[in-house]
Automatic annotation (TrEMBL):
InterPro entries: PASTA_dom (IPR005543)
Organism (species): Lactobacillus gasseri 224-1
Protein name, entry field: PASTA domain protein
Disordered: annotated span: 113-133, 186-216
PROSITE patterns associated with the record: PASTA (PS51178)
Bias kind Polar residues: ranges: 114-124, 201-216
Biological classification of the source: Bacteria, Bacillati, Bacillota, Bacilli, Lactobacillales
Alphabetical list of CDD domains matching this protein: PASTA_pknB
Length: 321
């Protein structure tokens, strides 16, 4: 009986528990294994959202297992989150763009608009090209053309337009008017007590003026004083958010087939509390009019915006509090 007990006791001295190596570097794990009388085995890599890149996710055999002294332990090391560079699918057909994004692991949503670009062409994407994104946690929304409406098809043949009186229009109405007439819309805000937010108070140039396609139409829209009053009473250093809307025209050429259109490269630079004018804010290729808003967060200084089309500046102005 005593001999049997001694046999098992002596035999178990050759068995070693695999230590906890989770979230160690490869070097740390190797040193810990050597200190326990074990050797480093094969290294493999996996993506992980929870374990930092270069750290141990798990071992084979698992932590806590008993193996013979001197045996090898394999490590699975993190490659970090599964990040994919967002491709630029603007200008592609929706079918091709969706197939490309789904192949990369993204979920895809679709919104539609009337535009001068071919039907089913992708006009915009809500995730900027070049960003590193985890496709397992992202849905990419594509803005897809429904083709030109009957009204915009008629107007696209004109080289000039006589401006309508749009004073009293809503901001959306002004945006629609600018889009249909191939004008670049610039929106400014002004405090008003007796007008609804977003109502157009003035326009420049004035109604009746003949302008060319691609010209800038500036509108001043009403802004309620209530929000300003409440924010200014709380603190003299309260951050003010000034939201500006911009519409960038794509000059249509009625003699050019839709398949031959060359996208315009648009780059937007913004300066406010959160952004530097040296860093690009938005980068896109357009083949139809595009509208977007920019919320400027301003505390002690004015903001600034600069927009380039194919490397040429089309807008460069300050944004005041």
């Amino acid at each position: 009986m005593i001999m049997v007990i001694l046999f098992f006791a002596l035999g178990r001295k050759d068995m070693v528990d695999i230590p906890n190596l989770n979230k160690m570097t490869q070097t740390e794990a190797k040193n810990t294994l050597n200190s326990s009388g074990l050797e480093l085995g094969k290294i493999s890599y996996e993506y992980s959202d929870t374990v930092p890149k270069g750290k141990v996710i798990r071992t084979k055999p698992p932590i806590g297992s008993q193996i013979k002294d001197g045996q090898k332990v394999n490590l699975i090391i993190s490659k970090g989150p599964h990040l994919v560079e967002m491709p630029n699918v603007i200008g592609e057909s929706y079918t091709v763009a969706k197939k490309q994004l789904v192949k990369l692991g993204f979920s895809v949503a679709k919104t539609e608009e009337y535009s001068s670009s071919p039907k089913n062409q992708v006009n915009a994407q809500d995730v900027e090209p070049g960003q590193q994104i985890n496709p397992d946690k992202a849905t990419v929304t594509l803005l897809v053309s429904k083709g030109p409406s009957s009204a915009s098809s008629t107007r696209s043949r004109r080289h000039t337009v006589k401006l309508r009186d749009i004073v009293g229009y809503s901001l959306k109405g002004a945006q629609d008017y600018a889009r249909e007439n191939h004008l670049t819309l610039k929106v400014e805000e002004e405090d008003s007590d007796d007008k609804n937010d977003g109502t157009v108070l003035r326009q420049s140039p004035e109604s009746g003026t003949d302008v060319s396609s691609g010209s800038t139409l500036t509108v001043v829209v009403a802004k309620s004083k209530k929000a300003d009053a409440s924010s200014s009473s709380s603190s003299s250093t309260t951050t003010t958010t000034v939201t500006k809307s911009y519409t960038i025209n794509y000059p249509a050429d009625s003699s050019q087939a839709n398949s031959q259109k060359t996208p315009d490269h648009i780059q937007v630079y913004v300066s406010d509390d959160d952004h530097s004018i040296n860093n690009i804010y938005r980068d896109m290729n357009i083949t139809s009019e595009q509208s977007f808003t920019v919320p400027f967060k301003l505390t002690k200084k004015n903001g600034h915006i600069k927009i380039l089309r194919n490397g040429n500046t089309i807008l460069d102005e300050d944004v005041n509090k």
